Amino acid sequence: xxxxxxxxxxxxxxxxxxxxxxxxxxxxxxxxxxxxxxxxxxxxxxxxxxxxxxxxxxxxxxxxxxxxxxxxxxxxxxxxxxxxxxxxxxxxxxxxxxxxxxxxxxxxxxxxxxxxxxxxxxxxxxxxxxxxxxxxxxxxxxxxxxxxxxxxxxxxxxxxxxxxxxxxxxxxxxxxxxxxxxxxxxxxxxxxxxxxxxxxxxxxxxxxxxxxxxxxxxx
Length: 219
Ligand code: C5P
Prior knowledge:
By secondary structure, the protein is of the alpha/beta class. Helices cover 26% and strands 26% of the residues. Helix 1 crosses helix 5. The chain is globular. It starts with 5 loop residues before the first strand and ends in a 6-residue tail after the last helix. Cytidine-5'-monophosphate (C5P) binds next to helix 3 and strand 9.
């Protein structure tokens, strides 16, 4: 029996407004993050699910914090992460946001228009470095090439304890599918579980998270 912990999970896409009716987003369904949230709640952990817009049902017994933009997700994580023993960042966060949000709907007068984009804040990279988070930190890496090398680099650069990497160039796994094939990389080990449902993989990810938390006296 695993003692209950507080687990913060980010999930889904973020939406960056262009004007009152338009936004930039991506293809993330939120399925992987929601599957982890469900597994964690089923095991009796307290779950704080900070999620961009999805079509999924929020799992029972989860504290659900809906957000839209990266900045909103950043603010929610900054607020809630202090309470977490484990933080799992499964959200597909936008890399760029419009430099300005038009207050009025943009008219289609001009033949061409230019949208200036600026970098969004790096939520995962801020967890340890800016928010002072000291619990177990798990990031995701969605890559189309050099999966292992990119994941290792991300592990170091963002101060993560574990990176869950997957190849998003493959049509049969990853974005918007129920199946996934992942690579788990920590400073000490690498593991390649066989391709499986996101629900099954969520148990494996959670098991790693809990094992990483245990030596820190969080059990
Ligand atoms: O650098 P990259 O965006 O590929 O890193 C992916 C990981 O970082 C994911 O865990 C994602 O949730 C997180 N991330 C974040 N804030 C960002 C960009 C990515 O938390 N602005």
